[in-house]
Design brief:
23% of the residues lie in helices and 39% in strands. It has 3 helices and 7 strands; from the N terminus they run βαβββαβαββ. The protein starts with a strand and ends with a strand. The structure holds coenzyme A.
Length: 146
């Protein structure tokens, strides 16, 4: 059985590297706000092995102009664990955390090929597509929490 739980920033780095930043320097997998008090990292663990990751940061977004919004980053599940609902479970864990902090708005710079996944989870796309160097085309997605 796969469980979703809080993990430490360092535990996310191997999957960040393997799935999200292959062929890039390891330092690019360490984000500036990883160790902020408000930051939370979630893992999907299958028999102790981390097979999915997601991090969430207190971060405003100029385009949205909403105070106290939260950013999702580094969403990934291992190839052999995709299509089993782990991505959605990780999103739910992050959203519950944000709600518990009083947050109302979550956003992410979504990779274009993952847009369908975010839409399934209730996120809406905004504005123009944009390119992030070494990663590819993205679009801003948001979800308001109750
Ligand atoms: C995107 C990703 C995290 C999805 O993880 P997952 O564990 O396979 O997602 P789930 O199994 O929870 O999928 C939930 C639903 O979204 C759908 N879905 C998943 N990925 C999708 C995609 N890329 N496009 C469209 N729909 C997608 C699933 O089919 C499923 O729909 P269903 O409930 O009708 O069957 C995973 O494919 C991944 O790690 N991709 C590579 C890294 C990446 O692009 N991360 C996103 C960075 S913004």
């Amino acid at each position: 059985m796969t469980v979703i739980k809080r993990i430490r920033a360092e535990q996310t780095y191997p999957l960040r590297q393997e799935i999200l930043r292959p062929h890039r320097p390891a330092v690019e997998c360490r984000f500036p706000n990883d160790f902020d008090d408000t930051t939370a990292h979630f893992g999907a663990l299958d028999s102790g092995r981390i097979v999915g990751i997601l991090s969430v940061y207190l971060a405003s977004n100029e385009q949205l102009g909403i105070a106290h919004s939260w950013q999702l980053r580094a969403m990934a599940t291992s190839e052999d664990h995709r299509g089993k609902g782990l991505g959605l479970r990780l999103l739910e864990a992050a959203e519950s955390y944000v709600s518990a902090q009083g947050g109302k708005c979550i956003w992410a710079n979504a990779r274009l090929h993952a847009l369908g996944f975010y839409k399934k989870a209730g996120y809406a796309a905004h504005g123009e597509r944009f390119h992030i160097a070494h990663v590819g085309p993205h679009v801003l997605v948001t979800r308001m929490l109750n």
